[in-house]
Amino acid sequence: MIEQTADVVVIGGGPAGLAAAISAKQHRANRVIVLDRNQWLGGILPQCIHDGFGVEELGVSMTGPEYAETYIEMAKSQGIMFLTETMVLRFNEALEIIAVNKKGILKLKAKVIILATGCREKTRWYSMIPGTRPSGIYTAGVTQALINLYNIMPGKKVVILGSGDVGLIMARRLKFEGAQVMGVVEFLPYASGLPRNVVQCLDDFDIPLYLNHTITYIAGKERLEKVTIQQVDHTMTPIPGTEKQIACDTLLLSLGLIPENELAKTIGVEIDDHTGGPLVNQRLETTIPGVFACGNCLQVYDTVDMLSFDAKKTGQYAAEYFIRKKAIGQNSKKGLIVHAGVGVRYVVPQRISTYGTIHFTLRVDKPRGATTLLLTAGKKEVLKKKLLGVNPVSMIRIDANISAEIFMAANELEVTLCDN
Amino acid sequence: MKNFQVAIIGGGVIGSALAWELSHYKINVVVFEMGSDVASGTSKANSGVIHSGINSPPSSLKARFCVEGNKMFQSLATELGFPLKWIGKYVIAKDEDEIKELERLKTIGHKNKVAGLEIHDGLIVKKKEPNISCIAGLWVPTAGVITPYECTIALAENATENNVRFLLETKVKYLKKKADYFVIGTNKGEFQADVVVNAAGLNCGEIVSMIETPDFQIFPCRGEYLVLDKTYGSLIQSMVYPIPNKELGVLGVHITPTIDGNILLGPSAEFIDDSYDTSTTKEMMKTLFQEAREIIPALPEDTAINAYAGIRCKLASQKTGGWADYRIEESKRNPGLIYLLGIESPGLTAAPAIAKEVTQMISRRMNLEKKTTIRIQAIRRSRFSEMSLDEQSTLIQRDNRWGRVVCRCEQVTEAEVIDALSNPLNAQAFSSVKYRCRAGMGRCQGGFCTQHIVRIMEQQFHKDVKELKLKSPNSHLFIGNVRREI
After folding, report:
1. Of the candidates A255, A276, A293, which is a domain's last residue?
2. Tell me: the pLDDT tens digits for A338-356?
3. Does B44 touch chain A (CB under 8 A)?
C-alpha cells in the first residue's frame, strides 16, 4: 500500500477539477493532487473537437482539446500533482481516500477533498423505451468518443433522441462523416440545447427537428432496424395515431446528464433531488465538513466557461477552509435554507451559513417571456431583477447581498419568478 | 474432428448441463449453438429461480426433475463456483379462497416430497416481509436464486475444459439418418454423430422437422420483466409469488430478489406467434408494475432501470390451459435421436436432473466409461470488487492490469475483461464479457467502459472493429473506421 498526504485532493481531472486545483494552489494550498480514472486529463474535453470553448471566460474561441490544454499546462506549471488511470474506490469522513492504479493501492490523507466527478449520460432505460434490444443504440457522448478519439464509425443512418447540446453537435458531426441523419426527436416543445447549436448543427444542414415527439418503440432483431416516433401532448403522453416509423441502423440518445455522485453518496453527502448534485452552502461545501463540490457533479452546466468560473471559487474556498478555518464561521449553527419557489427548478447554493454577498446559480422550470426574479426572506424582499426572457437551457446567475440583519432574522430564503 | 459420439443441438442450460454431465465420460461430445455464446435464449432471460417442486402435479416429469434438480444444485454451485442463495419463497393469499389454494399447493408439495412447507398467518409473514400485504403465506424454504447465465456459462466452460467441443454461431441446417449414425449439416460444415440430442429449446420443432414430421407443436409464451434499481433491493428478502394463474399454466407475476441485489418484477405471460420476438412493451411494463403493487403496495414509481423478455417453450396452447409435461424421449422412427421438448419452467432447476436422465438414455446405446481425472474450475472468476485491499495489492504487484479499472460502476479491471475474453468457449461478443465479469452492467450501462473494452479487443485480441458484436452473429456494433489510419 502506497501512503501519501495532501492539502487538497481533487477527485476528477476534467475542466472542473483542473480549475479547482489551480485555484486552490493560487490560494496557498501546498500539496494539491488531482486523481483521474482516465489515461488523460481534461475529462470529456478532448473528444469535443468543435469550437466555442472559452468565449465567455477568456474571450477566445477554442476547441475542447485546446481549452483543456490551456488548463493542463497552467496546472502543471504550478506544480500540481496528477495521478491518472487512478480510480477512487472509496473515501471516508476523516478524508482518507483509497484509490487504485497500476502501481497498486493508494491511501491518501487529505485536509480537504474536492469532488469534481462530472456526470454521466442518461440511457435508454432512463425513459424505459420498449421494444427489442439490438446493437446500434449509443449515447451521444459515447458516440462522440468513438468517432473523435477512436476513429470508429457506429453506423450509417442515424436518429437522435433528445436535443441536448451533445446530441445536436453529434448530428452535425455524423453528417460531416457521411452518415444520414434522419432527424432529432425532442419531447419538449423546444430544443433543450443552446439556440446557437440548433442553428449551427441542425438548420444549417437541413436536419429535421421533431419537437413534441418521442420514440415509443425500438425494433430490430440483431442490429437496430427502425424506431417509431410519436407526437406527445402537453402532458408528454403519446398521441395515438401519430406513430411514424423511421428506418435507421443507429439511435443516439441525448437524454441529458446525471451528476455522478455515487462516491459522495457512500459517505452520506446529502444530494439535492433537483440538481442531482450535493447540497452545498455558499462556500460550495457539502454536508460533510471538508468535502467540496464543483463542476457537473454539483449541477450540470451549460458551458465549460461558467463551470470553470464556479470551480475556481470551489478551489479557493477549499484552500481557505483549512488555512483559516475559524475565520469563515463554518461551524456556525445558524443557517438559512434556500428554496426554489414558483417558476424555479433549483437554486445553488441550497444553504447559507453566513451573511455577505452570495453568488446564486439557478434554472427556471420552463421558457417564459419577460419576468421578474424575486429573492425574498420571509416577507422581506432582498433582491428584485427584471429579466427579458428566461429558458431552462440557460442558467441564471445572480449576486445578492444578504445583510447581517436579514441573516439573523430569517430562516429561509426563496427565489421565485413573477411574470409581468 | 468431425465425428462425434454425441451431438447436442442447443447450448442453453439444458444442452450445457448435459454436455457437462457427459464430460465426465470417455466419449466425444459436440454442442452446436447458433448464438454467439451459450445461454443466448430462454436460459438467459428468466427469473433465475431454483424451484422447490410445489407447483407441478405429482408424478409429472416436471415435478420429478424439479425436485431432483433442486437437490443437486448446491453441490453443482459449489463445484462450479457460481453463486446460489437459498432465500426461500412465499406464495401469498389475499382472501379465504386463496388460503385454500395455499393448502392445495402444500399438499402437492408434500406429495412431491418438498420439505419444510409451512402456512404462516399474515402477521408472521409481515414480520419477515414487512412490505408484503397478505392474509397468509405458504413458506417454501427450499427455493433459491442463481444468475441463470452464470450457471450455464460455468457448465459449458467446465465441459469445454474437459474436452467437450462447443461450436458457437453454428446453426444446424439439416439432419439425416444413415445406417447407424446421423449426419448434421451446419453453416460450419457437416458433422457425424451416433446420438443426437435435441436441446434446441424454442427451435426443437424446427430440428425435428428436419428428419421426421413432428407430433407436437410449440406455443411460444413471452414473459416480460422489469429490473428495479438496487436502491430498492431491501424491499423484500425472499421471493414472493401470488397464487398461480391456472388459465395460462404459469406461476404469475412474482417478485424476485436477484443474486446481485436487484429486484425483478415478472414475468408476464403472453402467447405470441414469433418465437424470436423478445421485445418489451409499454403496456406490459405498466401491467407488471400494477401486479407487483398487489404484492408490495408501497412499491414506488419509476424504480425500474431495465426491461427484458424471455420466451417459454410451451407444448400446450392457451386454449388448452397452457400446461403440458416435459417430453424426454427417444424417437421411435429414428432411434438414437433424443428429444427434450417443452422444457419450460422449472427447466433451470430441472437441468442437472434431466442431464442425468439423458446420460442414462445414452448409456443404453453406448458404453459410458467414467474418466479418471476431471478438471474442475473450482473457483469462480476472481472479482476485484469483492477482494480485500491486501488481495488487491498482491494481484496488482503480480499483474498490473488488475490496477486499471475499466468499468467504473461495477469496478471491473482490465485483467478481468481480458480473462473474460479469454474464455474457453471463445465467446467474444460484448455480452460475453458482460455476463462473465459484469463490465457494462452498472448504472451507466457501458457509457464509460464501452470505449475501453473496444480498445482491449482491438489491441490485445487483434479484432477489426467491424467484427465486434453486441450479442449475436449479426449484431454488429460498428460499420468500420471513420477514416483510414495514416
Report:
1. A255
2. 999 999 999 999 999 989 9
3. no
- The answer to whether the Cβ–Cβ distance between A125 and B305 falls below 8 Å is yes
Among residues of chain A, what percentage have pLDDT more than 70? 98
Q: How far is CA A21 from CA A308, A315, B484, in A?
A: 11, 6, 39
Do A251 and A133 lie in one domain? The reply is yes
A163 and A284 both lie in a single domain: no
Q: Catalogue all structural domains in chain B, each as residue range(s) with its CATH number.
A: 3-42+149-215+324-363 (3.50.50.60), 84-143+218-314 (3.30.9.10), 384-467 (1.10.10)
Q: What local confidence, expressed as pLDDT, does residue A331 receive?
A: 46
How many domains does one find in chain A? 3
CA gap B28, B163 in Å, rounded:
8
Of A98, A102, A222, the CB nearest to B396: A102
CB B268 within 8 A of CB B288: yes
| Complex prediction ipTM | 0.94
Residues A29 and A60 in one domain: yes
- The b/e string for B379-416 (b: 16+ C-beta within 10 A; e otherwise) is eebeebeeeeeeebbebbeeebbbbbbbbbbbbbbbbb
User: Each residue of B376-387: pLDDT tens digit?
Assistant: 765 567 899 999
Instruction: Write the pLDDT tens digit of every residue in A38-57.
Output: 999 999 999 999 999 999 99
Min Cα separation B148/chain A (Å):
19
Helix, coil or strand: residue B272: coil
Contact A118, A42 (CB under 8 A): no
For A374-403, write each residue's pLDDT tens digit: 999 988 999 999 999 999 989 999 999 999
Domain that holds residue A306: 1-121+257-331
Q: Which residues in chain B show pLDDT less than 70?
A: 1, 377-380, 485-486
Q: CATH no. for residue A273?
A: 3.50.50.60
B51 is catalytic: yes
A134 & A246 share domain: yes
Distance from CA of A221 to the nearest CA of B (A): 8
